[in-house]
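Changelog-adjacent note: as of this version, every example in the card shows the full chain rather than a window. The one below runs 946 residues end to end.
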Amino acid sequence: MAKVIAQILAFIKQQWHDFISLPKVFYSGIRAKLALFTGSLIALTILILSFIYVRQQTQILTDSYEREAAISRRYISSLVLELDNISQSLIRIEEFRDRVRKQTEALKKYKTTKTTKEENKVSLFGFKTSLFGVLGKKTVRKSLATYYSEYLSKTDIDTLEKNIRSQLRHSGDQVISDFDFSRLQSQAKKFVETDREAAILRKHVAEMKEASENPDHTEITAVEEELRKKSIEARGYRTHLDASIAALLANSKKKKIKDLGLDTSRFRIQSFPPSGIVHGEITETTLDTKIFDPESSINQVALDGPLEDGLKSAFTVLTETVGVTGEVPPTSFQQNGLELQALYSPHFRNPASTERARLVDEVRKDPGPWRQFVGSIQDIQQELSKIPPALEARLKLLREKKPPVPPHKDKEFKIQYEKYAALIRKRDLAFTAFRKNLRLNEEEEHQVDAMETLRDSALEDQVLLRFKPDGSDYERYIHSDSGKEYFKKRWAALRSWIYSGESETPPAKLKASFPDGIIGNSRTEAEQILWKLDTTPLISDETDDLATIVLSSNFSGIIRTLVDRTEGLKEIHQNRNRAVVSAFGICGFSIFLAVFISGFVVQKIKRIIRGAEEVGKGYLNVEFEPGGNDEFGNLSVALNQMVTGLRDRDKIKGILGSMVDPVVIIEAMKDLAALKRGMEKRVTAFFSDVAGFSAISEKLSSVELANLLNEYLSQMTYILKEHDGVLDKYIGDAIVGIYNAPVDVENHTLKAVKASLKMIERLEDLKKGWNKDRKYIQEARDMKIRIGLNVGLAKVGFMGTDALASYTMMGDTVNLAARLEAAGKDYGVSILASDAVYAEVKDQIFTRKLDLVRVKGKNDPVILYEIISDMQSASPKIREKTRHYEEGLALYLDRKWDNAIKKFKDAEAAGDGPDKAVQLLIERCKEYKATPPPISWDGVYTRDHK
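Full-length structure tokens:
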């Protein structure tokens, strides 16, 4: 018991000593490292999690703001649509007045004159009398209107004006005064007049540019500058008009926005028309919720700088990159001490045709079976596109006749429109038939319905000037069969009016079908719109398709939502800072705890260190005490095994003195006697040599020569070992290698071939480095190697004396490999292999059959093959060259010397330069041609040198 108490007191004393020397601990030792690592890991983990938390919370905050603003943004979008409609209606009134006046004047030429005889009359006692013809007769000429002389009437203008007043009255909280309405009309008139002048200048610029091959650029620049100023002036009038309308409706709309829950102190929503976004100019807004709460901080933010750049960038992305239905990523920035985020979304007029076009656009991105349908109606579309030009020409002819002929009285006009209507019906029937074969879910049903009705919906939206666009037409159509029937009747009536050609202005029956607006175009104008929609392809990858032109036509600008995230981000950052402070506190506590706990294990480590120091001094009789089943116990076992291994290493020092290759050493450790006995085994013999190395070595200093050889031999030997080869020996610059001994190697011949190819490739890399660094002499930087490969039986084992021996190979297989390496010089090839090697690798390696020879020291002929590359890497040029060469070799063996020479030359021409093997065989052909070989000649060439 006393012993246990003494141990506890000693431990406490040691811990106290460690504690008071705590500062010293942090300078060195595993305790400091462990403590710092533990504390740092915990702190880093908390820091990383805190930053992840900030990102997640920021995204959640952004999503929350987006959802909060979404409802209000939809209302703002409808409000912008309403304001835009009022503004457009006022502009259309002024345009109508201008157009009616101009068109009425222009169309007078189509009126006819009727001449009649009437009796002269006088007034007698308040009655008109001709006095029984006594007064005689007079000639009277009357001007009669024709089909072509009619245009929209003043009644249409009055109707539109009346409905605008009504719309302003219902949208606001008070009746608009005549003065205010007159002011709006005046602003609209100024815009129309200025915009018309800008259009005239724009047309003038285009005419000047097309007038001649060498236009006057100075004059064009002056007109363009005038056009720019006029366009800015027109934009200013439009902005003032929009602002005036918004101001009149501000009070009533402010209450609605508050009811929807939009916090105008944190959100600012703005709309921008495309005409207001001009590079180099200040952007104009259609509506800015600043008018509802001008004093809030977010509404004090200036709209220049990053906001202006971000808006124009978003506009460019929508119009030039992702398309008007695409998404623009939000941008974040700081301004006026506020953390702001700008969200961008496109804004469209004509909600019904826009929604249909959006659905069709989704189908266009992944058309599936509808691409087949579009292809099936291509003939219909082509026939349909031929009719509008013919109708246009016919209408021009009818208009110019004296008197002008109404279209509905012309047979040719009727025939063309009957054909047109028949093609439309045929296309609709094809669509219906194709649709029946598809199984569609609800979403797909809406997409298909949109494809079917988009043309008619877009036609209605483009010709109808609605009194109040509430955006409910599409919902009414989708969710009600009666709604579908109602709109289809309207569309049919609209087409019938255009097809019939009976009236240039909308008849009363047609007007009755559109109680929610007036048709703001003549039949001729509506006809042009119809032709454009009907002849545009539904889906196309080559040109603008239907959805594209409808969306582009309906695109009316961008809505930007500015979000003040200052308070939200401030709270998130405060939470992060608290987490960071907590992290450092936990880190400090963890370090202290780690230092304390590590005291239990440091003593074990110190004992292990002392034993390791003894081993380091060479004392191998050390035994590490077992440490239990934990990591220290495993470490003690491993160290004891290490000491045992070191003792064994001393025993094999003699072996290491005479061995080179680790594989041989391992096998010698297993059974040295077996290796000394040797054996006959099928091996792949490898010989390599540097071409012309003697000349290179003579020009290098001893240091350079040693460096060159070490660098070269290290790389080549590494590749040899990488492919399971065993190094036999170095002979100067030559390398001798063995494959498949002393251990078995699967596919040893293929591995030897692949190693040879890799060596050629690695040498090229070495030479590039030498050239780049200007190392050694030029001959060394250009050096080439030759490799000889053969496979067969050879004697392998330790050969030499008892005192000094090496593991090597001997036999005809080995000698032939050496001869092949030397023969490579005659043929100018890098890797030369025997037919035995070829038989092993022919399915994986691309080769060239070079020659049939009888090498010195062997009677049996050998077929020589050049190893070129693996089968996949052989280029068409190499394959063609090889084919010509092997065909030439076959002709050579067949004694057809001239044909063989031609093929050999074709082979050389197919290559990248002179071919030594080709030249050798050509010379031999010429030699045999001059002095033919004997009849018994078997095509084998006998080499008389090694």
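Structural remarks: The longest helix spans residues 30-106.
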